[in-house]
């Protein structure tokens, strides 16, 4: 979920696993990350050492020293970096934490291969009627058949940026039918005019994922590279910032253990059940290089 950077920060909830824990031994996270991060802390056996702060502005809370690890869906602005450097004398360590993305799926034999964002809005956004247009009306194909729209039900709830597109307010209506994941894929496989909006997973063999066309007219496939590079329009990249001194020393052993645990396959797979995408090997390698735990193997990589 992408939120504005207001100066005012509302810390709406504080989770502490140990009443005796140092006030700064906390991980600062955004709302939708609270549950998965609690689970990661628990499975890293750090519940007695680390607490969790939920806030609407991770960068501000982090710079103010409310915790030494911050996890956010916003990559820090240059002004955030400058403020941190003014306060601490060095830059924070930036790591990939996770990502999520919405997939637009159609029947495997549907001739449509790509869709632009305005057409998506016409299909899935709420309006004054509960009817959807035809493929031809959106200039997606010559078919006059009405498009049947579907969305993943429970899996979108924890991902506000994606839920907002299909959530109606007031007297607005929607033609979108919400289905559980398994039923959604079965429906796509059976109905040639179906199109679905759901969280990205790796088990879309029964359907075809459409390319997305951005405002510049560029086409983007749905894959790890386009998601983590920030080019796929319906994706969030979550970053973990660590207040790590130039010497490489952590403020407390618990933070080092947590950061290292996040890089493991066990931790990454635990994110999957919350609808987040496990980091690919290349992204974990990039993190380990940033942490100076391994030497870089190839030049370049994700931005």
TrEMBL record:
What InterPro entries does the entry give?
PBP_domain, Phosphate_ABC_transporter
Q: Where is the signal peptide?
A: 1-21
Protein's UniProt keywords contain Signal: yes
From what superkingdom does this record's organism come? Bacteria
Keywords on record: Signal
Q: Does the keyword field hold Acetylation?
A: no
Q: Where is the PBP domain?
A: 97-264
Q: What is this protein called?
A: Periplasmic phosphate-binding protein PstS
